């Protein structure tokens, strides 16, 4: 069995996928895999029986998890008995905390809007552990993704066995009674107290980083800084991982031996301490993976060699144990990255890494291996990768390993023991932290070297894995000129095949993106021959008291439109068409201009542009993007697609909605009318100027408001389909019932983003079909 556990882990993985994903393909793949092992790896009957036993055990464990992964709480329930299981997260005036409902034996997520700054301070300082609290509130289903490539919060929580969000009416700590505290709860209490201790005794820069590296809690970190770490691909360093666990356990073991403790004593001590450490640091997948591996190695060491365990065996056994007890963790990005990167580094250490002699070369190669191993997962979840991450890892891994981690532990224990930390140490660490935080901000701005091919489908994921497997096979062979040429060639293929696949795509699309109460429409032509974006959506920002402000407020451009575009591999917009100056149409433009290359901006020719329009023009000027003011009579072609501006008049002066860019387009064999928030007076002017105008698809004006889509307008242009972009349960009552009845009376098919999510017309040459993201 020595060195063969990896084959068992692969079998368990395939069995798990056959339950959690597509049964037939992965079941057949599992059977084929077992046959290959028997035929070519010379597995004997005992090994095969053990393999099949593991497959069956994992299969039924996964099957049981899927069957039981459903709620028991009735939708009408309003009274709850809660035992809090995690530290609360407070962002502005919103408190969220995970709890266990005692009667139904089910996890739920509690949400509470804090009433005052004083209450916020109290809740922030108060431990939620050791009580059972009675609370009343309303149940709410977590939100689903309503756009392709959108974050599906419902699926995310479901994988954590959470099916309901409870909006409680009063403080979550009212009507509480103390209960006996288990050892686990006591450790969680210590974690909470440790985080508050850091916050009280250290500057925020040191406290936030210490909280992340000592207790695994990143909630204190500045949202912009966290975004910079994510942008550069080194956010994993802010999570406690195998590197941190190994360094810490190594330091503890070395210190124990140095002060005279015996090796057997230290082994027993670590076997007790490691599970405590896992709970103390938040039990993230990366910590659990590292802890399981170290525990397995320590246990086999205690057996004095009766069981040999290589690192690849340790991680394979840890993988099987983890998915047996928590099958749904397979969907967790942290789990996927932790095991994938660790597997590949372990496999490479005996073949690829040994060919590099200097520490610098080994560090560079390890960074490249890590990035390659993570690539399929990063692309699937985040649609792209910053190539600067290779160099950022080389710089920041030593920084975290040899400066941040030991140094912050040292500061923490000095403060604990002496109740005072020398000011020069505080000043020194502040200087180091601020310098490297500034540097990571600069590196995050190097978006020019980002690789953003979009989210790969299953077929493309398989190709990525096969190419990566081939790269590692070539890399571990003896260095020759031929090998180096092959390695460079196949690496180039790795990074160009999906963009080339996107270029070959003969289909185009028109998609009305669900941006809530706003507009944003993507026009993407076949073979990447052109990309237009009509409006960007936008989020209304209201001035609030400082204590209510979120660390990273929701912004539809950054949080919806940019991920939608990047998920399709779109990194360039040929024309950004901003129909008028309302925030719900153009507020997201700032995020678009920051994240996506824009070649040209079109705006309406009006005398009194809004302040938002003026800010966009200023930003465009800084970036060297031409801004063109268009009016009635402007027109252009893009291949077979034609565009005509029919409104407003040049230098229009009047009501802003009436001055919206209104455009007729011929796309995919269909005629379209895009009119922003054009009102009925504007519609009258258009049918007067174009009495023979006929349209197939109408983008209903002003989100289906009664001030647009007049009966005379509809009667003349005779659309067969109407698209309405409106926010779910919006406070304006859009779309208005009168408009809906008007459209139905004309036998017009209606598509609505508030009900159906994103609406897409996918076409090939001059024929296409409509589809909705939600059924």
Describe this structure in words.
This protein is of the alpha/beta class. Among the domains are: 5-68, no CATH class; 79-180, Beta Barrel (OB fold (Dihydrolipoamide Acetyltransferase, E2P)), CATH 2.40.50; 460-504; 508-772, Ribonuclease Z/Hydroxyacylglutathione hydrolase-like (Metallo-beta-lactamase, Chain A, 4-Layer Sandwich). Helices cover 49% and strands 16% of the residues. The chain has an 8-stranded mixed β-sheet with strand order 17-16-14-12-11-10-25-26. It has a 7-stranded mixed β-sheet with strand order 18-19-20-21-22-23-24. Helix 1 (5-20) runs antiparallel to helix 2 and helix 1 runs parallel beside helix 3 (45-68).
Label this structure with key terms.
775 residues, alpha/beta, OB fold (Dihydrolipoamide Acetyltransferase, E2P), eight-stranded mixed beta sheet, seven-stranded mixed beta sheet, 26 strands, 49% helix
The CATH topology of the domain at 508-772 corresponds to Metallo-beta-lactamase, Chain A
CATH architecture of the domain at 508-772: 4-Layer Sandwich
Average pLDDT value? 91
Tell the overall outline.
globular
Short structural description:
Helix content is 49%, strand content 16%. The chain is an alpha/beta fold and 775 residues long.
Give the SSE map.
Blueprint: H1 5-20, H2 23-40, H3 45-68, E1 79-84, E2 89-91, E3 94-101, E4 106-113, H4 117-125, E5 131-140, H5 153-158, E6 162-168, E7 176-178, H6 183-201, H7 204-215, H8 223-231, H9 242-258, H10 263-280, H11 285-302, H12 311-325, H13 333-349, H14 359-382, E8 385-386, H15 389-418, H16 423-444, E9 450-451, H17 458-475, H18 481-504, E10 507-512, E11 521-524, E12 531-534, H19 556-567, E13 572-573, E14 575-577, H20 583-586, H21 589-595, E15 597-598, E16 601-604, H22 611-623, E17 627-630, E18 635-638, E19 641-647, E20 662-667, E21 670-674, H23 680-689, E22 697-699, H24 711-717, E23 721-724, H25 737-745, E24 749-752, H26 753-756, E25 759-764, E26 767-772
Parallel strand pairs: 4-6, 12-14, 13-15, 14-16, 16-17, 21-22, 22-23, 23-24
Antiparallel strand pairs: 1-3, 1-5, 2-3, 3-4, 5-6, 5-7, 8-9, 10-11, 10-25, 11-12, 18-19, 19-20, 20-21, 25-26
Helix pairs in contact: 1-2, 1-3, 1-12, 3-12, 6-7, 7-15, 8-16, 9-10, 9-11, 10-11, 11-12, 12-13, 13-14, 14-15, 14-17, 17-18, 19-21, 23-24
């Amino acid at each position: 069995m020595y060195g063969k556990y990896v084959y068992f882990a692969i079998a368990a993985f395939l069995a798990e996928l056959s339950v959690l994903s597509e049964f037939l393909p992965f079941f057949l793949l599992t059977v084929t895999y077992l046959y290959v092992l028997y035929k070519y790896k010379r597995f004997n009957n005992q090994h095969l029986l053990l393999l099949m036993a593991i497959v069956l055990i994992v299969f039924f464990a996964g099957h049981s998890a899927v069957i039981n992964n459903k709620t028991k709480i009735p939708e009408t329930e309003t009274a709850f008995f809660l035992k809090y299981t995690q530290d609360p997260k407070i962002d502005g005036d919103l408190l969220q905390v995970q709890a266990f409902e005692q009667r139904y034996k089910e996890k739920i997520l509690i949400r509470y809007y804090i009433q005052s700054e004083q209450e916020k301070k109290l809740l922030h300082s108060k431990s939620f552990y050791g009580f059972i609290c009675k609370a009343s509130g309303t149940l709410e289903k977590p939100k689903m993704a309503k756009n392709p490539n959108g974050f599906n919060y419902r699926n995310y929580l479901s994988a954590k066995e959470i099916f309901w969000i409870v909006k409680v009416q009063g403080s979550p700590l009212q009507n509480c009674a103390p209960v006996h505290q288990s050892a686990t709860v006591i450790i969680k209490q210590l974690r909470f107290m440790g985080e508050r201790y850091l916050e009280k005794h250290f500057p925020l820069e040191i406290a936030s980083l210490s909280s992340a590296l000592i207790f695994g809690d990143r909630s204190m970190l500045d949202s912009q800084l966290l975004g910079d770490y994510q942008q550069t691909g080194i956010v994993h360093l802010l999570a406690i991982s195998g590197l941190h666990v190994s360094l810490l356990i190594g330091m503890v073991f070395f210190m124990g031996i140095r002060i005279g403790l015996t090796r057997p004593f230290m082994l027993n001590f670590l076997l007790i301490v490691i599970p405590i450490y896992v709970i103390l640091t938040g039990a993230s997948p990366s910590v659990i993976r590292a802890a399981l591996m170290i525990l397995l190695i320590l246990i086999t060491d205690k057996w004095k060699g009766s069981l040999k365990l290589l690192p690849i065996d340790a991680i394979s056994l840890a993988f099987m144990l983890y998915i047996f007890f928590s099958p749904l963790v397979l969907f967790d990005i942290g789990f996927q990255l932790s095991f994938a990167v660790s597997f590949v580094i372990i496999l490479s250490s005996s073949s690829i890494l040994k060919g590099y002699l200097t520490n610098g070369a080994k560090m560079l190669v390890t960074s490249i291996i890590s990035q390659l191993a993570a690539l399929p997962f990063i692309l699937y979840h985040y649609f792209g990768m910053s190539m600067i991450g290779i160099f950022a890892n080389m710089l920041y891994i030593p920084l975290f390993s040899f400066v941040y981690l030991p140094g912050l532990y040292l500061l923490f224990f000095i403060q604990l023991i002496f109740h005072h930390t020398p000011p020069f140490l505080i000043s020194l660490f502040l200087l180091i932290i601020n310098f490297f935080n500034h540097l990571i901000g600069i590196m995050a701005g190097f978006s020019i070297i980002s690789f953003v091919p979009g989210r790969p489908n299953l077929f493309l994921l398989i190709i990525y894995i096969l190419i990566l497997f081939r790269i590692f096979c070539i890399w571990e062979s003896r260095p020759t000129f031929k090998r180096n040429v092959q390695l460079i060639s196949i690496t180039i293929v790795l990074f160009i095949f999906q963009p080339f696949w996107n270029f070959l795509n003969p289909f185009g699309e028109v998609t009305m993106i669900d941006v809530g109460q706003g507009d944003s429409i993507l026009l993407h032509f076949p073979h990447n021959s052109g990309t237009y974006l009509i409006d960007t959506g936008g989020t209304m920002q209201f001035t609030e008291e400082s204590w209510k402000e979120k660390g990273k407020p929701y912004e539809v451009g950054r949080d919806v439109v940019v991920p939608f575009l990047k998920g399709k591999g779109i990194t360039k917009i040929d024309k950004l068409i901003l129909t008028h100056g309302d925030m719900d149409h153009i507020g997201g433009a700032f995020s678009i201009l920051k994240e996506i290359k824009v070649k040209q901006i079109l705006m309406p020719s009006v005398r009194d542009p809004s302040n938002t329009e003026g800010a966009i023009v200023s930003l465009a000027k800084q970036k060297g993007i031409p801004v063109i003011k268009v009016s009635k009579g402007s027109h252009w072609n893009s291949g077979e697609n034609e565009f005509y501006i029919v409104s407003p008049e040049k230098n229009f002066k009047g009501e802003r909605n009436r001055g919206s860019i209104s455009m007729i387009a011929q796309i995919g064999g269909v005629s379209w009318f895009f009119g922003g928030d054009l009102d009925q007076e504007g519609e009258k002017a258009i049918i007067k100027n174009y009495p023979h105008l006929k349209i197939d698809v109408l983008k209903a004006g002003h989100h289906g408001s009664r001030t647009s889509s007049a009966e005379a307008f509809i009667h003349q242009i005779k659309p067969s389909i109407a698209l309405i972009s409106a926010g779910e349960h919006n406070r304006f009552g859009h779309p208005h019932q009168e408009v809906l009845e008007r459209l139905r009376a004309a036998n017009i098919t209606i598509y609505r983003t508030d009900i159906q999510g994103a609406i897409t017309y996918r076409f090939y040459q001059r024929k296409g079909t409509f589809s909705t993201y939600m059924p």
